[in-house]
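LOG
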Amino acid sequence: MADTPKGMEVFEGEIIAMKGPCHAGHKVGDRLALSCFDTGGLCGFFYHDIFPALSMMQFGGQYPWADKNCLEMTCCDPEVRVKMVVRRVG
């Protein structure tokens, strides 16, 4: 497992909703420590989808329509639709 380099932010991902049971075992209320260097145990498919937004947050960017400190994202599986909020911790 990769370690997040010293001085780089680690974000908190919290599973807040889902339509059906997650094949990777995620459940509402799960909290994960995420960064561009560490998946925090997040399903690879979901991590693949959030990586561009996570990378933008990791390096100080933001979407003009979103809060700089918080993004809500949904997994690509239409039967499960795991919804997660990623927040800046510090």
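LOG (cont.) second protein
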Amino acid sequence: MGLDDFNLLHEGNDLQETAIYCPYCGESISVLLNVEDAGLDYIEDCQVCCRPIEISVSEGAMGELIAQVRTDSE
């Protein structure tokens, strides 16, 4: 395996699919978290009720990404 192959494999590991629950409608939705987003906040609309969910991304002790969600009024 060459360096280019390693870089392609590594790039694929930068995203983590995570299930969150919408703070408005309570439905479980899937979001992709990027390791580069650790420490950032962003807004993503719920795929079910279309309301804006504020998502804070942090890195856990084992290197996993953690998403904390809240409404836009919290």
